[in-house]
Write a structure and sequence with these properties.
Elements (H helix, E strand, L loop, with lengths): L1 H18 L16 H19 L5 H10 L13 E6 L5 H8 L5 E6 L3 H10 L6 E6 L14 E7 L8 H11 E12 L3 H14 L6 H11 L4 E4 L5 E3 L1 H5 L5 H11 L8 H14 L1 E2 L5 E4 L2 E5 L1
Parallel strand pairs: 1-2, 1-4, 2-3, 4-5
Antiparallel strand pairs: 5-10, 6-10, 7-9, 8-9
């Protein structure tokens, strides 16, 4: 209760400050090409932390991959191989590389990534995989011509829907890519203390609200689409010692902070950044060895 009171107090103060602030750059529905370099640096910093987590047993990323792999070739016995996988918003390709390294049969993999530099990173990350034929497409999933693509056995969307304004159209386009008996797996964060600060910035930066897993389920219910939803095991943490012990003074730490808040904090007054650091510090818990970790919670929605 004491921590919740502190978090509420910080958020109220932050909201009051932001009412009087207009960021130096407004983003319309995603990261624009003019912000490509800036976003790639933020994403790369986040991926560096993610790599450390991927190496750990029962980590958050592993939970996601296990859920995706449940719907892999073994679940489609009798289907013709190679198995076709499409990953929407594949980013730099790190989680997908682990998945593709664990497949036992040939796979045709198509990654779609709107950010040009991230798509180049994905090509480098996913090269030389023995059982995967990899294609990376640098286009906007919501605007591209889907008729040029084959239909897939598994369609993945991992933490991407937040940046898409029209969710009903998004679901329709996902179904366009899926074969009749295919699985569409969407990984979405649940509402946590950390996500409350994202909600504050998201609408100001992107011009539409942040939507978590419950928001997705509400849209699916409105559309009459059948689904299953399963909370991923709550073992996911991000170890933030490197950032917090530096007091967010290095560029690396600033990039991680921006990515976690989904805001270009350099465009805001210093007091806004300070409030974000204070809030995230309060969200963190200490480990027995004195480390600082931030818990994450997510769900897998399967169509």
């Amino acid at each position: 209760m004491i921590m919740e009171y502190k978090l509420d107090s910080i958020l109220l103060t932050l909201e009051k400050i932001l009412k009087e602030v207009t960021p130096g750059q407004n983003l319309e529905g995603g990261f624009p090409e003019s912000d490509d370099d800036d976003y790639t640096e933020k994403f790369a910093a986040f991926c560096e932390i993610a790599k450390e987590q991927i190496a750990e047993k029962d980590c958050y990323v592993s939970n996601i991959l296990e859920k995706a792999l449940e719907y892999h070739i073994a679940k489609f016995s009798g289907d013709t191989v190679p198995f076709n996988i499409c990953s929407i918003g594949c980013g730099a390709g790190e989680p997908d590389r682990i998945m593709l390294q664990n497949v036992s049969d040939p796979v045709n993999y198509v990654g779609i990534e709107i950010n040009e530099k991230s798509s180049h990173m994905a090509k480098a990350t996913l090269k030389d995989l023995p059982r995967a034929q990899v294609t990376i497409i640098n286009e906007d999933f919501m605007q591209m011509d889907l008729t040029s693509l084959p239909q897939f056995d598994l369609v993945l969307m991992i933490h991407v829907h937040y940046y898409i304004k029209d969710l009903k159209t998004m679901f329709g386009r996902l179904h366009q890519l899926a074969k009749e008996n295919a699985k569409i797996v969407i990984i979405s964060e649940n509402l946590t203390a950390k996500q409350r600060i994202v909600r504050i910035f998201f609408e100001k930066e992107f011009k539409f609200p942040f939507r978590d897993s419950q928001d997705l389920l509400q849209v699916l219910d409105e559309m009459g689409v059948s689904y299953t939803s399963e909370a991923l095991p709550n073992k996911g943490v991000w170890h933030l010692d490197r950032c917090f012990k530096e007091d967010f003074s290095s560029q690396f730490s600033k990039n991680v902070l921006d990515f976690m808040c989904q805001a270009a904090l350099k465009n805001y007054p210093q007091e806004v950044r300070d409030m974000c650091v204070k809030y995230l510090r309060t969200c963190c818990r200490k480990t027995p060895d004195g480390g600082l970790v931030l818990d994450y919670s997510a769900s897998a929605i399967v169509l």
